[in-house]
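Hi both,

Apologies for the delay on this - the queue was longer than expected. I finally got the zinc ion-bound model through. Below you'll find the protein sequence and the ligand SMILES exactly as submitted, and right after that the structure tokens for the full complex including the ligand.
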Amino acid sequence: MEDDRLDLGLVDTVEATDVGEPGQRTFKITVASPRGEAVIWMEKEQMFQIGLAIKQFITVEEPPSSPTPYEPEYPAPPTPGKSEFKASEMRIRHDLRSDVFTVEATDPDSEAEDDNEEPATTVQFSFTREVATGLSEAALEAVSKGRPRCELCGGPKDPGGHVCPKTNGHHKGDFELA
Ligand SMILES: [Zn+2]
């Protein structure tokens, strides 16, 4: 069974936006590199956690003084790949030596639901601290969209109140950058 994975390598930009009417918004990240392109749809909470994890990380962690060049983890596809799906699982991690962030998103629909036992599709892409900073801002902005933002975590403050992940430790493990 082959690993159905598209590694876009280093991307120059990561676009994070919301789509749709208030109350029915969905969220997506768009990335492209010479290796291909991907549109990853996600829940608001997932986009918030990505923005928050990056923001917390870059606030605390200094960049290395002499970062090593980044090498993509997987070989390039034979022809540029193209992928669009709604992510069931998303992970973000950081490589200390190169100071490069990597996001991995997995598509649930291609997981074994029939006799074909298709492996899950995974897209991963990597980006520098500078791009990460822009992504974090864009993600938190898309999530809050016009509402006041919490000064601690950057998340939206709803009229009904705000459960701040900075003060109660409420966050998802996958998004914890260390
Ligand atoms: Zn907060």
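Main takeaway for now: Residues 170-174 have pLDDT under 50 and may be disordered.

I'll put the files on the shared drive as well.

H.
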